[in-house]
Design a protein that fits this description.
The chain is mainly beta. It is 4% helix and 32% strand. This is FI03257p.
């Protein structure tokens, strides 16, 4: 045990060098942020994260500027008093190690009473301020601190709220605010509200009274999700006779739309749906929901690119082409 501790004690000094890029240890937080967003690592006061394609790229502040300032996006010698969760002091601690207040495996080496140098313990170890060494995790009492998003993200940056496809967060004057897209979904990669079909998300917002009202709840019934043409919720019968508060979402396979009347997934042309009819379609052209069955949609990767007209002709959904023959699909009757 003493040999292990001694080795890790030496490792503390060695790890102070070459820390420009380090690896993350938890689930990637960048799934929430748009490309090129820079935030402070929630597990460190000295590391920043640059988000690219939902992947975190870590950088470490070193030398005489060991702290990362989320507001300026720069490495600084010290942080403002408002960032109290990252406050450390090297006063009377020269030539000693100080624990990183935001991380179990991070630490600072006080080169003198004013200069703190950042370092990290090896994988599967935690820093122990009492012994001034890295110790095995099972020997540590440290637990990673919880964090508030606004302590790592600067004001005005949108980021995903996983509670709903149409929801996102933004910090305003250091306070986390919940925002909602109107008739669209939030796309984390761009930080914008976009067409629902462009967002890969299963957390569809529950429609009002999705499983019926208290006086007449739906029992063991499938209902449309009112966001896509393929999606539906399953409302299970409740023992207390109330509407199912947590219906399960699912969707029909490719080239099938959900039909509430038959409670089945059927041919898209047999279902009226005003949402994106290119969703889940393998064809390049599909009939639109416009009344008269003369219009069609141009699809690309399951998303509508444009709507076009056959003029005086009708659109044949099976052939994927305009035809002089009259076509009367349920999809475009209303």
């Amino acid at each position: 045990m003493e040999k292990f501790g001694a080795i890790l004690g030496v490792a503390l000094v060695l790890l102070l060098q070459g820390l420009d890029v380090v690896n993350g240890r938890n689930e990637d937080i960048c799934r929430l942020f748009s490309n090129n967003t820079v935030i402070r690592d929630p597990e460190s006061c000295s590391q920043s994260i640059t988000c690219i394609d939902s992947v975190s790229y870590y950088s470490t502040c070193t030398g005489s500027t060991p702290f990362f300032d989320k507001d300026t996006g720069k490495c600084v010698k010290s942080l403002s008093t408002s960032t109290s969760s990252c406050s450390i002091s090297c006063a009377d601690r020269a030539k000693q190690f100080v624990a990183d207040p935001k991380s179990c495996y991070g630490y600072y080496y006080c080169a003198d009473e004013e200069t703190a140098l950042y370092g990290t313990c090896p994988q599967e170890t935690h820093f122990n301020a009492t012994t001034q060494m890295c110790s095995r995790q099972h020997e540590s009492d440290c637990t990673t601190s919880t964090f508030e998003y606004c302590s790592i993200v600067k004001n005005g940056v949108n980021f995903d709220n996983l509670q709903g496809c149409n929801m996102y967060h933004v910090c305003e004057k250091g306070v986390l605010k919940d925002k909602t897209c109107s008739k669209t979904y939030y796309q984390a990669s761009t930080g914008e509200c976009v067409s629902k079909a462009l967002v890969d998300c299963d957390a569809h917002p529950l429609p009002t009274d999705v499983c019926g009202k208290a006086s007449k709840p739906y029992e063991n019934k499938f209902v449309a999700d009112e966001a896509t043409c393929r999606g539906y919720f399953y409302c299970a019968k409740q023992k207390d006779g109330t509407p199912d508060p947590n219906p399960v979402w699912n969707q029909c396979p490719q080239d099938r739309f959900f039909d509430a009347s038959s409670q089945m997934c059927i041919t898209p042309s047999s279902v009226y749906c005003s949402h994106d009819r290119c969703d889940g379609r393998t064809a390049s052209f599909v009939v639109s929901a416009t009344k008269g069955c003369r219009n069609y949609l141009s699809c690309s990767d399951g998303v509508t690119v444009s709507e076009r007209s056959c003029g005086n002709y009708f659109f044949d959904d099976q052939q994927g082409a305009c035809t002089p023959s009259v076509q009367t699909y349920t999809a475009c009757k209303t």
